[in-house]
Design the sequence.
């Protein structure tokens, strides 16, 4: 059973690792819904040796149809990308971002689902880091990592289909409350939520960008069943909720297509505060 320390790493612990010379691969996964390309922000300042990872181009496969706005990549694509990033067998990976842990959680989910072990999310993101920053672009030596799963929809982390999400014992919607209620929908064609889903915004799991204490996390998430699934707009921010649940010992499944897939398939839609 995973613990918080298995999924997340503090900036202080990361600094100690780097200061002691412990091999660590750093991946910068800056991404925002309104600014998906974080390349320039990365070049202006990143953790020493960190390699930029594009969520849209390397942690998604937009050639896949019918699976939402950010379909999962294949394991083969993840392996090729990870080797470009310098990921090596047996070397721990720390992923970070600068916006609500969305990009780093997506990277954690994709890499872990592909079967790459020892991936952790920097708690608090870039703003928690107190050490030096490097500018420009890091060019790592090619890595040698090998993935264990080519189909991430049936990989090392559980996923659910739209049909399975609709019948899950506990279904959590990780989007902002106004999107859940159906008051606004800035991206997808239909506003609202999956009938039966309970709204637990992924941002409610954070305070100043860092994870809430364990007791506060449990109170915020509430009671969940053995069959728990999570969705968001397109499977990105829900990855943080999954990561938090895993760190609490709960094996939650991700609905990768999320609302972007559900709303495009003329499925039932609920609006308002209540799950139904």
Sequence:
């Amino acid at each position: 059973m995973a613990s918080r320390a298995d999924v997340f790493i503090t900036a202080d612990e990361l600094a100690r690792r780097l200061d002691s010379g412990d091999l660590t691969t750093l991946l910068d996964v800056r991404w925002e819904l309104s600014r998906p390309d974080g390349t320039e922000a990365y070049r202006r300042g990143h953790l020493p040796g960190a390699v930029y990872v594009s969520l849209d181009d390397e942690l998604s496969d937009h050639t896949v149809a019918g699976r939402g706005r950010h379909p999962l990549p294949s394991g083969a694509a993840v392996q090729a990308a990870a080797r470009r990033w310098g990921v090596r067998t047996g070397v721990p990976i720390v992923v970070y971002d600068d916006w609500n842990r969305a990009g780093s959680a997506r990277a954690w989910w994709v890499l872990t689902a592909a079967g790459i072990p020892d991936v952790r999310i920097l708690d608090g993101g870039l703003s928690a880091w107190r050490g030096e920053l490097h500018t420009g672009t890091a060019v790592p030596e090619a890595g040698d990592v090998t993935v264990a799963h080519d189909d991430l929809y049936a990989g090392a982390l559980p996923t659910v289909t739209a049909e399975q999400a609709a019948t899950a014992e506990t279904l959590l919607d990780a989007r902002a409350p106004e999107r859940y209620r159906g008051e606004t929908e800035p991206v997808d064609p239909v506003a609202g939520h999956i009938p039966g889903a309970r709204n637990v915004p992924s941002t409610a799991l954070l305070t100043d960008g860092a994870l809430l204490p364990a007791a506060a996390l449990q109170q915020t998430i509430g009671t969940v069943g053995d069959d728990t699934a999570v969705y968001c707009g397109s499977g990105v921010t829900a990855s943080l909720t999954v990561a938090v649940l895993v760190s609490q010992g709960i094996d939650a499944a991700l609905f990768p297509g999320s609302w972007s897939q559900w709303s495009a398939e003329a499925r039932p839609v609920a609006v308002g505060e209540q799950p139904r």
